[in-house]
Amino acid sequence: MAMTAPEIEALIRTALPDAEVTITDLAGDGDHYAAHVVSSAFAGKPRVAQHKLVYEALGGRMGGVLHALQLTTAVPN
Amino acid sequence: MSDVNTRIGDIVSSNDIVLFMKGTPLFPQCGFSSRAIAILEHLNVPYESVDVLQDMEIRQAIKSFSEWPTIPQLYVKGEFVGGSDIMMEMYEAGELHQLIADAGIAAQG
After folding, report:
1. What's the pLDDT tens digit per position in B10-49?
2. Number of CB pairs, chain A paired with chain B, less than 8 A apart
3. Between 20 and 30 A from B74 (CA), which of A42, A49, B47, B84?
4. Does domain B2-102 have CATH number 3.40.30.10?
C-alpha cells in the first residue's frame, strides 16, 4: 500500500497551505521518496518541530504505509 | 507500558549518545539506520546502539516516548535530537559536531 507523490503533496498542503512541496521518487518504485517542504509555518521552530508538523500533516502514515520519506524543511526566503 | 518507558529512560540517561536503529552498526537493516550510523562514524564519537528489531516492546514504545514516528532516533545526553534526515542536515551544517562538543563528549582518539 504505497502512496503516490501527489497524495503526499496534497496531505502536506492541506495542513500547511502555503507550503512549497518538492517530491522526488528516489527509486522510481513509488515507495521511496524525498520531500523538501518550504513553509512559513516553520519560522522560529527547531528542526524537530518542523519535521513533526509535516509528519502530523501525513496523519500517522509516516512509519506506516509511508516507510521511506527523506524529509528536509526550510523557511521561505 | 510504563515499564518500557522506564527502560528507555534508563537507556537514554545512561549513554551520552545512543541510536535506536534497525539492525546493528555492522549490519544495519534499513537505509536510514545505515545513514545514521555513517554520520556517527564520521563524527568519530563513542555511541551506544539499540536494535529495535530485537526488542518489539522498545520498537513500539520509542515512537511515543519521543513523539517521533520513525526509526532511527538519536539521543544525546538524554535529549531527543532527531531522525536520520535531521542528523544529516545538522551534520552538514556543523551543528551536530557543536551539539556533541557542547555536551562535553570528546571524539575518540
Report:
1. 999 999 999 999 999 999 999 999 999 999 999 999 999 9
2. 31
3. A42
4. yes
Interface membership of B31 toward A (CB under 8 Å): yes
Q: How many domains does chain A have?
A: 1
Contacts of A60 in chain B (CB under 8 A): 69
Angle of CA points B51, B44, A32, to nearest 5°? 50
pLDDT band at B63 (very low <50, low <70, confident <90, very high): very high
8 Å CB contact of B86 and A48: yes
The model's pTM is 0.90
All 3 cell numbers of residue A6? 501527489
Chain A residue nearest residue B72, CA to CA: A63
Please state the domain extents for chain B: 2-102
B46 in contact with chain A, both atoms CB, cutoff 8 A: no
What CA dihedral angle connects B36, B41, B47 and B49, to 10 degrees?
A: 40
Domain hosting residue A37, numbered range: 5-74
Q: Is B57 helix (H, G, I), strand (E, B) or coil?
A: helix
Supply the pLDDT for residue A58.
Answer: 93
CATH number reported for the structural domain that contains residue A15 in this entry = 3.30.300.90
